[in-house]
Design a protein that fits this description.
The structure is a single chain. The N terminus is likely disordered. The chain has one domain: Vaccinia Virus protein VP39 (Rossmann fold, 3-Layer(aba) Sandwich), CATH 3.40.50. β2, α3 and β3 form a beta-alpha-beta unit. It is of the alpha/beta class. It has five helices and seven strands; from the N terminus they run αβαβαβαβαβββ. A seven-stranded mixed beta sheet has the order 3-2-1-4-5-7-6, with helices on both faces.
Length: 166
């Protein structure tokens, strides 16, 4: 990545966690559509694009971080990546698109997760998954089921899918 301004709360996904995530997802995301809510540095979205994702949508509220994302997209000539400067919860509430993979890494001290987990089933394609990072362990409720989970340092991470019965 080219560079990002100092931004309060910007907490890129640790390399070890990112490696685990892409092992869970498989080494290729060829043809998939991805949504990176609360994109921050965009590490997850850029990684998905580098693994063949057809379309990656990044959402970042912080204007300075958003501009850096736009610059990196332009510098790297990433045709399939689209960035929006908007609050992740607002974007998810209004976006009508469906995705195969949603990366969900809201600020750890926010109350976004319960609200997002309520909205996101309508944003997933069949067999789609949601990757969640949090500062605390997450107990998921139907219609969600944990497919994989782990912890690295202070970061709890899970891959969620929709229950087959719901």
């Amino acid at each position: 990545m080219i560079g990002f301004p100092d931004a309060e709360g910007l907490r890129p996904t640790p390399d070890r966690v990112r490696e685990t995530l892409f092992n869970w997802l498989g080494q290729t995301l060829y043809g998939r559509t991805c949504l990176d809510l609360f994109a921050g540095s965009g590490a997850l979205g850029f990684e998905a694009a580098s693994r063949g994702a057809a379309r990656v949508v990044m959402v970042e509220k912080n204007p300075a971080v958003f501009r850096a994302l736009q610059n990196n997209i332009a510098e790297l000539s990433c045709a399939g990546i689209f960035a929006y400067c908007q609050d992740g919860l607002e974007f998810a509430s209004r976006d009508a698109h469906r995705y195969d993979v949603i990366f969900l890494d809201p600020p750890f001290h926010s109350n976004y997760l319960p609200k997002l987990l309520e909205i996101l089933p309508q944003r997933l394609n069949e067999n789609g998954v949601v990757y969640v990072e949090s500062g605390v362990a997450i107990d998921v409720m139907p219609p969600w089921q944990a497919i994989k989970s782990g912890k690295a340092g202070q970061v709890h991470h899970q891959l969620l899918g929709l229950s087959v019965n719901d």
